[in-house]
Amino acid sequence: MASDPRTTRVRPRYARSDPRGLFPHVTGLPEPPYNRLAHFWRPIIDMTDSDVAPSRLRMIRPVAAWLAEPESGEQLWFARINVTGLRRQVIRHAGLDAYDCRVPKDLAEPLRTPAWETLVRAIDRFDRLDPYVRTLVLFQLAQLSFCELGTRLAGEVRPDGDPVRDRYVYQVARLHARLPGSRPVALRLFEQLATSSKDPLLALLSCFQGISHAIRKENDLDLARRFERHGQAVRDLPDDWHTYLVLSRFHRALALLRLNERRFGEMRAEVRAALDFHERLRPEVSGEVDTMVADENRRILLESQINAAVRARGDESAAQVRALCAEIIALDPYCVLVRLAVGDGHAAIGEYAEAARWYERAGELGTGAGAIGWFRAGQCHEFLGDRGAAINAYGRCLELDASAVEPRAYLTAARTAEG
């Protein structure tokens, strides 16, 4: 029988002996296309699309097409960008040392795809690009986890009221938000955009970003509340589905704020508002890219609902949590973060065997997030009394991140007990 979820909680993260993590090099693995991990991470390796890549990486392909032919002027509405260092984690765990590079131009020419080569050429003439094309370049650098390069290329920026340039400044701020030492710069730019942009959607997007980063990274509720007030002051929103999209994101950020304020009833009201706006946008969406944007929004909302059930379980039934897990995995089945969220959902309702299965499936995708998956799986196996499975899970965690403290301690104790 599973342990009581009220008394047995899965710790989300392990402590690290090195705050940067230690991601071992794996050697002797085949090159693409015969490399298992490469199939799931191919867009971040060389910008080749893959139908088994997570949705946030599949966004690289359409943006690469816009960068090759920028005359279309397509706007970026994608919400998620990758964490700094993700590509290097993938390269190490996939054993693809030949693809390791600190900046795109350092990748050997024989390994460059046409999309990669287009990006390199754009970086070389970055100072001569117009703000729209610069925005595309910075988005691609963020998705490839070259955020430091992106901020160096951009230099000092500030909004000036021109809608196209202000969207470029917004993208610069997003890159700064991914770099720990640069988050104050990001928050300052987001607030400048929130209070000065002539584009009301951009102003509201900046409030959404400000709330999220003030809470998740800085733990500054007062700053988050200030962004909330800026957002409530935005007027004259256009009458199209992009407005519903941005309002859905803004209310999702407010739900995060209410959760951290421990105002759980209001948190759920904000989640409902975010869901309502999402449902209003869906009938107006058409085309592949717009569908990707809408699906991304739904996927993030589902993750928010699962997180709410994990952190502040309300009246959600076990069946409702299972339904959320089933829907999100159907939307983005190969995303390590989605698999973690599904594991979290099952753990929240005490289904530790099912939670362990999804945590292990997250671990199979490698990276630091995969190491966290194995760590959580190990705890579930402990709760279920399966010592052998726990040893396996903690060992797999250390194979992905050798800095993990608790898994190492567990394996040390297991070896002592056997001796």
From TrEMBL:
Gene3D superfamilies (UniProt xref): Tetratricopeptide repeat domain (1.25.40.10)
Protein name as annotated: Tetratricopeptide repeat protein
Taxonomy of the source species: Bacteria, Bacillati, Actinomycetota, Actinomycetes, Streptosporangiales
